[in-house]
């Protein structure tokens, strides 16, 4: 029970009410003690005035004792006209243990006296000084037993505590019911809705309907409903994309087989003696090659089981040389390749995946220069910084068109050449993120294009990437 929200509110309410009652209890007991003593002074004054009004100011011992018993004191001293007179007296059982001056007491004086009174021995004697009422004198001084006062204070305190307990229980019960009605039940409804939604998040009927009258809770329900609506839509979209991706993969696989057969037939056409066929065959072969590359790229991008990078310290110059030599075989003689990599530079990476990243970048640069139909240069540079390593691939080609820059690393949208799919850069960027790094476009203008791959040194990023 006490682990629930309403149970904790119940306990806190009882505790706080009891603390408030304790703060009220102390001054209440002090006030009770003051009233008790003032009542004894008032009765003592009446008794003393009765004696002074009698003939010869003399009464019988029996009557005197009756007046003292009625006032609850041992003796009464009344000061009038600058002289003090012992008006009533009886034997005092012991010495005075406590003295209280009620002529002009401060609240702190009364509170401290009351607390001390509770812990004083019950058989003591109290001396009380006060001012007579109705200007009947300048001072009234009485002695009285402490036991009746202490017993009355304890009885009064117990009644106050009992009343406080009743008030605490009633207040706590009301707050408990109010919290359950206005907070716990609405929260349970939200939690129940979340649990029901979690069982079938694709079911739009399980999205919560905000209806709370509590402003803060209504805001939470509105936010939750919006979140669930977006998540449901996203799940449906992902499901459709997954189905579409599966269909595209199957189509691409079958289409690649068909295009491979067509490519073989086109190769035979190149050996034809017909001049028209000779002129058309290379174009046909190029078109078929682009179609095959599109199918292979689509299949590669559709694989979600891309192996995580196996990070090791590798000499980066060897990887760069392999990339450049591979592209030189396919490049025209007018394109130059350069390498600005320190011979002994070691980079923590997956060599195979870095080869794929650099290969995509260099291939795009080569194709851009060939499409421009002019000589050019492609260069790869590497350097080590305080926080990682940077690899830069730049060329002096015509630069990227504005449309390609907008969605450069988005699959099927960031193609940099006519007929391209943009899968190469999308895959390269994904491989870079797998290393904990980033692939970015440094510049692209009439003077050429430069991409930069940053690989961080932080161990935690490598650990995350390897998981």
UniProtKB/TrEMBL annotation:
GO terms for molecular function: phosphorelay sensor kinase activity. Residues 250-459 form the Histidine kinase domain. InterPro entries: HATPase_C_sf, HATPase_dom, His_kinase_dom, HisK_dim/P_dom, HisK_dim/P_sf, Sig_transdc_His_kin-like_C, TCS_sensor_his_kinase. The keyword DNA-binding does not apply. Its main location: membrane. The chain crosses the membrane at residues 9-30, 156-179. Signal peptide: none annotated. Keywords: Kinase, Membrane, Phosphoprotein, Transferase, Transmembrane, Transmembrane helix. It catalyses: ATP + protein L-histidine = ADP + protein N-phospho-L-histidine. Its EC number is 2.7.13.3. It is found in: Membrane. PROSITE patterns: HIS_KIN. CDD domains: HATPase. This is histidine kinase. It comes from Litoreibacter ponti.
